[in-house]
Amino acid sequence: MALDELSERIAQLDQSLTSIEAVIDVPGKQKQIANLEEEAAAPDLWSDQEHAQAVTSRLSRLQSDVERVQGLRSRLSDVAVLLELAAEEDDPDSVKEASKELDGLGEEIDALEVRTLLSGEYDERDALVTIRSEAGGVDAADFAAMLLRMYERWCERHGYNYEVYDISYAEEAGIKSATFTVKSPYAYGTLSVEQGTHRLVRISPFDNQGRRQTSFAGVEVLPVVEETDHIDIPEQDIRTDVFHASGPGGQGVNTTDSAVRVTHLPTGIVVSCQNERSQIQNKAACLRVLQAKLLERARQERAAEMNALKSDGNSWGSQMRSYVLHPYQMVKDLRTGYESGNPDAVFDGDIDAFVDRGIRWRRQEEQAAAV
């Protein structure tokens, strides 16, 4: 790439980063960091553990946001200096190094720009994801298992921690459902665009006649409830059942009734957990999931009240992505139109492009609805 093209690229990235810095409000965040650092240094901070956790968590996230922006700004300045030296000394190796660094900076600045679009009430939180097999029999159960692996691989690609709370295995293959958390800043805001119905078209490996099968799986994404939410669930409003934890094919993984199922009687919501070794731990996990579902239910009720005032409803939650393995290979987002011709890579966790475009699409829909 010619020097003048690289200089133009630097100017474009500088403009994008300046816009991001304005949205993020680095000086404002630095003031918040200073206040939180002073609060975190108080000797009696941990006398109230809930408050202390909220302070330290908020401080860590703000510091990470500021450090990320400042790091990108520093790298962009360094590559500009490198390009100037390369031009003065007619050094093609430095030009190549600058070009490579600009490619990496472009990807990171684009990703940070998407992050600035996550400004919802719960977007900063961890995500609670549930995958369910829907129409399509054993193929749907197998598809649900493929989606679970896809999200696990996505987490591993990014170094995000995740924890599987519960898996209900299907009899022949795959899973009926799975619930897991993704523990990373903005996990909910990022993954919330994955919510909806996913569709798979392929030659069924479970059909001895080799026929093409269409199957469906649903993905639900909720924000993880924090201690400060204080959702009150009276004990008389829940029914708790215990049962043996089980593995694939119904094989028991232990001989005690450690798995727990909690039913919220007023709403009929049922959650279960068998990941932990004791009833107490599993019930605590169940209550965390139930709180998240009740929090989301309250949010949806508020959103329904607002949507009732609008003339046009939204199509959120309907079929959103199609995975076609036969007669051609393609994964397509039905909302954004973005597609990939490499389903294997997608199922191996390469979904960032779909997620980024989903976030941009959602912001455009929100802006259009606000007009």
Automatic annotation (TrEMBL):
<dbReference type="InterPro" id="IPR045853">
    <property type="entry name" value="Pep_chain_release_fac_I_sf"/>
</dbReference>
<dbReference type="GO" id="GO:0005737">
    <property type="term" value="C:cytoplasm"/>
</dbReference>
<dbReference type="GO" id="GO:0016149">
    <property type="term" value="F:translation release factor activity, codon specific"/>
</dbReference>
<comment type="similarity">
    <text>Belongs to the prokaryotic/mitochondrial release factor family.</text>
</comment>
<dbReference type="InterPro" id="IPR000352">
    <property type="entry name" value="Pep_chain_release_fac_I"/>
</dbReference>
<dbReference type="InterPro" id="IPR005139">
    <property type="entry name" value="PCRF"/>
</dbReference>
<keyword id="KW-0488">Methylation</keyword>
<keyword id="KW-0648">Protein biosynthesis</keyword>
<dbReference type="Pfam" id="PF00472">
    <property type="entry name" value="RF-1"/>
</dbReference>
<feature type="modified residue" description="N5-methylglutamine">
    <location>
        <position position="251"/>
    </location>
</feature>
<protein>
    <recommendedName>
        <fullName>Peptide chain release factor 2</fullName>
    </recommendedName>
</protein>
<keyword id="KW-0963">Cytoplasm</keyword>
<dbReference type="Pfam" id="PF03462">
    <property type="entry name" value="PCRF"/>
</dbReference>
<comment type="function">
    <text>Peptide chain release factor 2 directs the termination of translation in response to the peptide chain termination codons UGA and UAA.</text>
</comment>
<feature type="domain" description="Prokaryotic-type class I peptide chain release factors">
    <location>
        <begin position="244"/>
        <end position="260"/>
    </location>
</feature>
<dbReference type="InterPro" id="IPR004374">
    <property type="entry name" value="PrfB"/>
</dbReference>
